[in-house]
Amino acid sequence: MEDDSKQVPGSSGLWDSSLSYITRSATIQEHRHYCYKVAVSLDHMVNCWVSQSPHIGIRGFIVNQQKHHQCASPGGPVLNVLIEPESSWGSRIKKLLSGRDFIRFEQIIDPDSLGPVLPVEYNSLPNEALMGHIQRLIDVVTGSSADEIKAIDGRIERLLLFLKENLTGRISRSQIQDITFLSFDRARHLFTKEVGISLSRYILWQRLRCALKDIVTGGASLTEITKNYAFTDLSHFNRTFKQMFGFSPSAFLLESRLII
Question: What structural domains and CATH numbers belong to the chain?
C-alpha cells in the first residue's frame, strides 16, 4: 500500500481494536477465535479452509468469528489482524460479511490496488513504523476508520474497561454487578448480546492476548504468565493458545512477529 505523510496514532488504537502479527509458518492448524480475522499475504498467494470448504490461491480474506479455519502459506509470510467485534472496525466487518463465514478480498476491493501491504524492508523496521500501514490496510478493507464511534450499552462499555484493567486479578460476580448495576445473570446476558461472546470467553481471550504481549515485550516466561493471568497450569495455557491461534505458543514465538 502507498505510504503518505498523514501520521496514524500510535499503538493504542491498533492494540485496543485488534491483535496483529506476521507469521512465516507454512501451515496453521484448524482453530477458531471470537475475533474477525483479516489476513493478507505479503508477496504471494495463500490457501484457506473454512469449515472444511477450500479457498485456494487468494491474496487476502476475512473469516467470521467463531468459524473453524486453517491456512497454508508455503510461499511466504502472512499478515494477520484479529479484530475485536465490539470495535468500530468489527462493526464494519460484520456488515461486510452479512452472515457469511468467509469473504475474499476480491469480493470487496481490487487486491492489486493494495500494492505492497508493508514496506519491502519491513523486517528491519520497528513496529511503530508498521502500525500506520496496518491501520490503513484495515481502513481500506473495511471502508471505515478506527476513530468512528460504535454505539454500545454504557454499562457494558464500563465493564469492558474494567475487565481490560483487571486481567491479572480475580474478577468477582459482585464487581460485575456493581459496575453494571445489574444482576450477574442479566449482565452476562447483556454482555453476550453487545459483544458477541460470552463473558467468560472474553476474559479468557483478553488474558491470552495480554499474556502474549508480556512474553514478547517483557520477556516473561510461559510459567510466569500462566500464573499471572490465572490459567490453571501451563498445559491449560498451551491448549487454549493453540485452539485460538492454530499453533503452540513456542511455535508462535519462533515463527511470528507480534506488532504492538
Answer: 11-142 (2.60.120.10), 154-246 (1.10.10.60)
Over residues 4-17, the mean pLDDT reads: 54
- The structure's pTM equals 0.90
Asked if 60 and 111 count as a contact pair (C-beta separation under 8 A), the reply is yes
Q: How many residues does the chain have?
A: 260
Give 101's contacts (C-beta < 8 A, 6+ positions apart): 50, 51, 53, 63, 64, 67
Percent of the chain's residues with pLDDT above 70? 93
> Residues 7, 212, 253, 195: is their CA dihedral positive or negative?
negative
| CA-based torsion, 138, 139, 143, 144: positive or negative | positive
Residue 64, judged by CB atoms within 10 A of its CB (0-12, 13-18, 19+), counts as buried
pLDDT band at 1 (very low <50, low <70, confident <90, very high): low
Mean pLDDT of the chain: 89
Residue 38 near residue 87 (C-beta atoms within 8 A): no
How far apart (Å, rounded) are the C-alpha atoms in residues 56 and 249? 27
Across 229-248, average pLDDT: 93
Instruction: Supply 28's cell numbers.
Output: 496453521
Q: What 3 state SS string does 137-190 have?
A: HHHHHHCCCCCCCCCCCHHHHHHHHHHHHCCCCCCCHHHHHHHHCCCHHHHHHH
Sequence-distant (6+) residues with CB within 8 A of 21 are 79, 80, 252, 256, 257, 258, 259
